[in-house]
Amino acid sequence: xxxxxxxxxxxxxxxxxxxxxxxxxxxxxxxxxxxxxxxxxxxxxxxxxxxxxxxxxxxxxxxxxxxxxxxxxxxxxxxxxxxxxxxxxxxxxxxxxxxxxxxxxxxxxxxxxxxxxxxx
Length: 120
What we know:
There is one protein chain. Helix content is 25%, strand content 44%. The relative contact order is 0.24. Strand 4 (84-99) and strand 5 form a beta hairpin. It is elongated. The chain is built from two helices and five strands.
């Protein structure tokens, strides 16, 4: 019985702590732009008008909150020299963990967008 409790505790801690994985698909020009500051990266939701820009790549990140996911997305976009992230989309996935008989909801936030560089 102690083994089962230990296993449940380890599983619970891993689910709560989590990590921030991300995936980036870049175009051939991804290294042609110097890095920018994450604070200067603008965010545009789907359907918003943006200045004329060149696509650098698509980024998908996972975080523990919407705010954390958007911030991490901006940091990754800044590393490849993006001025903005367009078509921002936030998805929330909820899983329920049952510890003994108590259901505990665990939320995962997936934030995606397209990194772009403005063209003058």
